[in-house]
Amino acid sequence: MTKSAELIHTALDSFLIELPSWGFADTGTRFGKFLQDSAATTLAEKFADAGQVHALTGVCPSVALHVLWDLPAGTDLKEVQNLSSQFGVRPGSINPNVFQDQEYKHGSLSNERAEVREKALQHILESVQWAKELGSRDLAPWFADGSNYPGTANIRRRKQWLADGLRKVHQALDSGQRLLIEYKPFEPAFYHTDVADWGMALLLARAAGPQARVLVDTGHHYQAQNIEQIVAWLLSEDMLGGFHFNDRRYADDDLTLGSIDPYQIFRIFAEIRHYEWETGGRADIAYMVDQSHNLKNKIEAMIQTVMTAQQLYAKAALIDHQALEKARNQQRLIDAENCLKDAFETDVRPVLGEWSESRKLAADPLRAFRESGYTERTARERAGRKKGAVSSYA
Ligand SMILES: [Mn+2]
């Protein structure tokens, strides 16, 4: 094996990606939801579909669960464990839902009304409990808190309420668990969101406690924001907890990773790989997908995402960090920049195929999936049951 093939194999061996349960369900836009006969509606179907992706790619052993959509009140967690063993994928991060109920229209943990804050807190604490029982490490709340018009919210007080709530959530964690704080500059609130950027998320994570980290959703930034710089800063503060992978052209578009700007994702991986090269350690990062495949076949889109992530990660594994560091120190700008570009422009797909075959996986998971006839089979089985089943987002 060549040296670069070896580098890629080693990198891919430990590169795992978590799949979101909601990525297999029918989803849509603010204008409408588009149904696919083969899309999953039940938790069993979501586990089955995620299991397909893992069986073919070998790198997606866990599924992120969304509490209200996947674990409604009265869910028997034993059933979830059974699905896990049946389909070969375990429950991953637990995502509490504190935005869907009517009470949350003005926010959850930072709502002006104490009883709403309390309701949100209880739901998140319950989610921590479920995470413990399911053996899930990371808790990843989705906060939609914010306001739509200037002057309508006390921003400082809401920050305090949010910090207080997160501190209580942190107290409930087991020693191995983590609380991931995700940020987003707008939507669904359009004037201010309570956790608008990585700095706010960092402060809230620090206020919550030592097991809290920042979650970077690649779509949750303004245009032209330098995401890899945010990643570098969070790494240097030991505060990077994980990623929600997706791509965007305009806002939080939830498009397929690397479909618009693969170099952006590569540059993020380059920062992580450089940090690991420099420290000799491994950054504890949860790589997760958070996408909405409104029009693509859900499972195919997920396989495409995983393969894209692997390709970009493999390219980043080819960076010669020693040469890069030397060029930087000697201020040879073109040479330093070309360390990244040479790696990025290498076609790693043949090595990726060899790596898959060496792991007894299909060299081309996408083609293998299409040839399996899974979509046609599940479309036949699921189509009848789905009639009229258009309710919540996923
Ligand atoms: Mn996200």
TrEMBL record:
Basic and acidic residues bias (residue ranges): 373-382
Domain Xylose isomerase-like TIM barrel, chain residue ranges per copy: 74-270
Domain of life the protein comes from: Bacteria
Residues annotated as transmembrane: none
GO MF entry, a single one: metal ion binding
InterPro entries for the chain: L-rhamnose_isomerase (IPR050337), Xyl_isomerase-like_sf (IPR036237), Xyl_isomerase-like_TIM-brl (IPR013022)
Protein keywords: Isomerase, Manganese, Metal-binding
Membrane found in the keyword field: no
Annotated Pfam families: AP_endonuc_2
Gene Ontology BP, a term: L-lyxose metabolic process
Region Disordered, annotated ranges: 373-394
PANTHER family: L-RHAMNOSE ISOMERASE
Stated name of the protein: Xylose isomerase domain protein TIM barrel
Organism: Candidatus Sulfotelmatobacter kueseliae
Lineage of producing organism: Bacteria, Pseudomonadati, Acidobacteriota, Terriglobia, Terriglobales
